[in-house]
Amino acid sequence: MTVETQYLSAQPKLRATTTVLGAIAIAALLVAPFVVYPIFLMSVLCFALFACAFNLLIGYVGLLSFGHATFFGGAAYFTAHAVKVWGWEPLSGILLGAAGAAALGFVVGFLAIRRQGIYFAMITLALGQMFAFICLQVPFTHGEDGIQGVPRGHLLGFIDLNEPLAMYYVTLAIFLFGFFAIWRIVNSPFGNILKAIRENERRAVSLGYRVDRYKLGAFVMSAALAGLAGGTKAIVFQFATLTDVQWQMSGEVILMTLLGGIGTLVGPAIGAGLVLALQNYLAASDFPVTVLIGIIFVVCVLLFRRGIAGEVMEFFKTRFNRST
Amino acid sequence: MSTIFGIPAPAFYGQLLIGLINGSFYALLSLGLAVIFGLLRVINFAHGAQYMLGAFAAYLLLGYAGIGYWPSLILAPLIVGVTAVVIERTMLSRLYNLDPLYGLLLTFGLALILEGVFRYWFGAAGQPYSPPSQLTGAVNLGFMFMPIYRGWVVVASLIICLSTWLLIEKTRLGAYLRAATENATLVQAFGVNVPRLLTLTYGLGAALAAVAGVLAAPIYQVSPLMGSNLIIIVFAVVVVGGMGSILGAIVTGYMLGVLEGLTKVFYPEASSIVIFVIMAIVLLIRPAGLFGREE
Prior knowledge:
Strand content of chain A: under 5%
CATH topology of chain A: ABC transporter involved in vitamin B12 uptake, BtuC
Shape of chain A: globular
Strand order of the largest sheet of chain B: 1-2
Number of strands of chain B: 4
Radius of gyration of chain B: 19 Å
Low-confidence stretches of chain A: 1-9
Distance between the termini of chain A: 30 Å
Mean pLDDT of chain B: 89
Structural class of chain B: mainly alpha
Oligomer: heterodimer
Mean pLDDT of chain A: 89
Helix content of chain A: over 70%
Largest interface: A-B, 41 and 44 residues
Number of helices of chain A: 13
CATH class of chain A: Mainly Alpha
Number of domains of chain A: 1
């Protein structure tokens, strides 16, 4: 998918604006739990990180993974198991989840990058389904029940995560860490090569880059960050179930990213917030959520391919160009 | 009692038959996917939903209009084909000059809508649909009892697969289709109405899915979710076969169905993932697929 690259960092005026906006956003996130229900905010943060991690692939390498639930849900299982059964401290449990997701990402990515474009999407979907079947059958995931009653415990032994505010700020810190990592990856020389692959893979090959290694590297990073989000979610909600590994979840993260703006840094986070708010709102009515998700998909693809953040940036870019 | 590789013969043949039947559906669906992909370069994620729609069309025709199995076998694909033509004209055709991934996402959204709406109306539980009276009962083949309807499904899907293959390889319309797959601009320059050909192809592919749905209705129950789980397996089948060849799609479908059935006999725990494992192995050894060409 071709997406316009961001030139924000190249223009001093825009860079100042983004710094200010970023500071405002962080300040808003710091006071948010006093205004909005913290559990909802934490789920938004987890899914926002998940969507941003997914966007690292689709937005910056042009690879559509239809199996990202594997890494999100897989990490949730690993973290939940480590914390509940082995009695690990929560942060190390989350890191184990991310590491497990990275390992899964290595296997899935290694197979999937052997084909391109549409086949890549189908292979990741099929492998994701296979992982879901495995999760249904192996004993440690407890089948349909999932892993319930995961203790939140004490972070590093002294921060009591049963305090909602403490849990919130830890989740926020993890989200900001993941977001910063993605920002660093995208704006590094490595990230530039990824974008080159997205724009013209053959040319990148002819320039001497071993494209497959870069793709695999990006896939593993994306999987690890998705795992970071999944592991955190397992601690926040204190369970890990099959819902998180199934293809519907892979579809949801695609929707969040598409709605927010593929290839924009903040877009996926906005999309995640919107989709969760809608689901929360609809949970009270009997309107089927899948229908609404489907409708948003169709509308986005037909009319709105840049997504919210993409449209806003396009608006400012044309204005900026006109004024100079 | 006779045994085959240590397995009682009736159990062995029974699973073989189930494998053949599943294989029939894999073949019919991957055939439709391959026909659509060949010309439109779109992976039709709604294929599973169209299969479900076919089964529901037959179920509703019987329930509300008293129209039985045999007319439904023609009518249901026609209805689904017409809705597919509308979808192609109003939505899909706007995406042809974009990245093919958008076609996948659009049809994914459509699949979610269809599945969600039917689930809202009928619930997730399956509705029974009985086979026509001519095809009830079982026949003794000497080594096993075979329900007649199941035999019919295997035969019918073979006939449909072969006639689709003949249509594409041996007729003038099929020649246009193949030519447009190779080079649409050139075919258009020769005066063939390529946009109409695209519409027709999408309708035909969806109708094939609907036929499979009607055939499946008496075997599995008619349920809103019957398509979505199947379509992911069919995607794996398509990756194994490669979408370059129609015959390849058919052969791979039957082959994987039978392999899955045999796995159920020898190692039941792995039967739900065996096709995905085969896909992974094929990707390692022959990334383009068994019948595919490197692009």
